[in-house]
């Protein structure tokens, strides 16, 4: 297993530095004959772009365009069963912005850590540790989603912000997410009061403040039987997938940490949803609920980003978490094809 | 990557059903020349046994003896660089206890899920989904620890219960863990008031109640530079490792979910320990703090275990989480040997 | 990928030193529900034993008994989809024979090479570099064969000696192999004149001589579509499998090196069998013919084996090559399940 | 392990169809700090081009230019320890040439096999089964060579044609290869009589004839201790590497098939070079000699190539085999870093 690779059957290899020539990904293991849905890919890439959609006018940042070029693996609109390579050029690099920090580590960033580890690093904008790396994930995740739309058409992956700094969704608001257009909500936070969150983030940007938050991923109608004993339980692969996202520092399945507050006799009832759709590491076919916490964005401390920083990373992380979810689902669906004779 | 395998460089393959002939593990990738510390292995296996040490008189369960037999890979007291295979016989199988439930799924257990997935399963005591599978992890983790004691002698892995049902350690109590003999504490819960936890668990066992809880793993003096971009960040591999443990349903690095409650300007200070010793996915050399939540034990619902169930899984999980931590550390330390020319 | 592991889907991990406690293998990835054919396993292990069957009275050597113990992964006569661990105890170790050579490398053996590489090695009888390691391969290959008998019942793997030192099969003799009981032939060499080969080997043993030779593996009715672009072509995985056997030093598919002597216009005819059943790296469904060359046994130089050495390794290698063939077939058949949507 | 991936430590992922947008490769696992030798890369790509150097005026074919674009992993002239992605655009595609054969399989080609396997394939020029795929290998092999030049500066990999159809090098000619400029020889065949081979190939091209042949790879001064037991012996990984090249159908280490013709007492002498520099699967530090046979080019049968076909594939295969050799060496050198404590 190499460092920049994810998956056992639907395998992706990610590459690219933030300010290098391009970012890209190679998808190896996608079956042949899947319709390559270019519109889906474009939509997902658009959703990932900083300063778009849910994050509205509030979240700015680099505006890259991010045209995906498919280099291989697709012919006459269908996958070939051969590796699908996709790249996005870095157009809006502004290396100049970063030259001043060549020799000064940015607090909260990983520049110094990587420099020590490898002895040589691309100091421009975080290089490979930049959030821009998620471009590769969203491209690959879109292909996984294309495959899943064939193989399990009822499955949906719905990501939304459940908490942004001091603001938290109510249970009633959460109950509506499957029927809500999340991208139409301010900061992908589907609270009834949309002003509250937009005010919070606007002020944060003005004041150089940032917030942590929580993203929730709801998998509606997942295939049953996904997940492998012992180390590739569905929950362990999802945890790995989500924690591999920058600034993610917590993961919960179902009731998560709150489960510790309920006695077992109350917790384990036949009706309860507390297992989160996964038992013994394997999906039951019930909806799966996952939560990921993010620490406050450290870019507030970044001289180069003054005035255009992103006050809460959760909104931008949602399409990335969705992509990782599709990747895990596709990987395990393929894996399950050989479970029994 | 196969399903029962963990690690990229220090690779383990686990096998065995709860009521089959034996459980075992093969460690492939441990360098040659490491002193094979039989005493360490025995101690760790003893610490894993239900009804021992921290879990005191309170936690009962199967009492297996669990003599490890080393089948290969060790010669004249040192590792050979060849695969180290270790097995433990299942002596205390009592298959009879389980025959009644052959056709009735146990609520909260995975029996039915696995049965559906594979079309054929060993119904006796959970088969491979049993907690007994952790025998393999502790054997392998002990070898990882032997290697780490050579390669990074100052590194310590300290696991303890930070919460058991309604009881939680105070910050003052947590500050003492490195100096405390955790195994001497009731239920590995190092609270000043040891009666409280023993009373809670005794009553729970009498009443057929169970509790969830939180285990914390403190890595003292970890090597720096562990963790690989992008998908094998140290935090993602640790999350995967911990979530692969049965009943684990949440993971936190450093401040975790609480980080969401602090504004960035307060969170990101040079002095803070909130990053948990990992930045950009790579260890900084600072102490690493990890938390894992467990849902309440479902064995209370298990007819076969009435009167001898384990009211909180956290205590027993601690040696397993420590073993997984050593495995991740050894894997990444070996990996880091090829970071730079 | 770890060093002692083979396969991508049907994955085996081999362990054990020649004079350690046991040799063994873990098979991970065999689907659930395959009948575990104990008789087949016993037969194949018997066929692997030095001094048995084809090698008749001529080839002596260690007589191990080699009772296989299945430790996991099989329940009520069927595979569980969980790892299948199997071991064989080393009963006939005679370490004493080897103590004299602790500090003297045996010419043609790898003792010194391994000692230098790992800095520490088990000098007894070659340790892990011993031919006894093939016990693990035959156990695993038998399970692969069980799976293939379900999944592709018409497929047969037929191994035989095509050359033993100066003796070579004629084309007419080769044409009969599928109808011949190879194991009933002297040295598994199905020549019409059986005396010739038995005389040759008898004299060689008396005179301390040894011979190289060629084994051929004929795969009758292989499934079509096995093999993956680009690096896991069926031919490349077979070459790797066969060259991993000790003393093997050459590999041919179909016409092999002889193909170099025919002009293309004569070589490429629609009727010809010269492609060996594999085109573009993928099986066509036609019979596949493979050849493996072995250098003369170096054990003639081994003081400890005087008078009971094996004058030609080919006979003994045949069940091992067959096992490797079944492993590659099972691996690629599982792999092909996800070729297309 | 995914299908288009090679290596365990120095891992490459290849992608691209012959007539798609681009071919490329991602190298993951190259240590940081290696000088990226652009001139070496350019030279090796030039050497791979059909119609160049050794193949002289004789061997024509597509003339692609093949400018490599490095997309990631290199900064300020040094590797970053992050994935190195490189692509080459397909400029000279001429899809039109191939439209006529969309529905007619070309004899000896794999078009029909792949079509059946995947249900959908790129019929243009072989798609991914085209020899053009070797562009990816040569790019990756060049990076492996750059690493090896740091890590083992005395190691040389020398490839040459030892046989082209009816013509074979004499032992005297072979003894000179290390001192010969192979690329200056007609068809990379370093015979004294250079006219003979150029005449042979010229006539073959005129007459629509093709020949098989044998390439030899001499590794001078390889590092010792490369190769891992049991399945990743150096010889098995080399066999896999070479057999993964199109039209390769045989492999020999050292004496190879000829070893079968020498009795053991004559074969195993302390002075002999017959082991080929590898014992017990591990390199001894002595020179390693490898041979690969190729069947006659099937492109003679290809309507689209009439008059510009390549009469012997060996010449073109040599830079590819060299690239694969560097990849195996780099992979195993990195692997050996963790052999002992």
TrEMBL record, chains A, B, C, D:
Transmembrane segments: none annotated. FMN binds at residues 128-130, 280, 295-299, 308. Keywords: Amino-acid biosynthesis, Aromatic amino acid biosynthesis, FAD, Flavoprotein, FMN, Lyase, NADP. It catalyses: 5-O-(1-carboxyvinyl)-3-phosphoshikimate = chorismate + phosphate. The gene is aroC. One of its GO terms (biological process) is aromatic amino acid family biosynthetic process. The lineage of its organism: Bacteria, Pseudomonadati, Bdellovibrionota, Bdellovibrionia, Bdellovibrionales. The keyword Nucleus does not apply. GO terms for molecular function: chorismate synthase activity; FMN binding. It comes from Bdellovibrio bacteriovorus. This is Chorismate synthase.
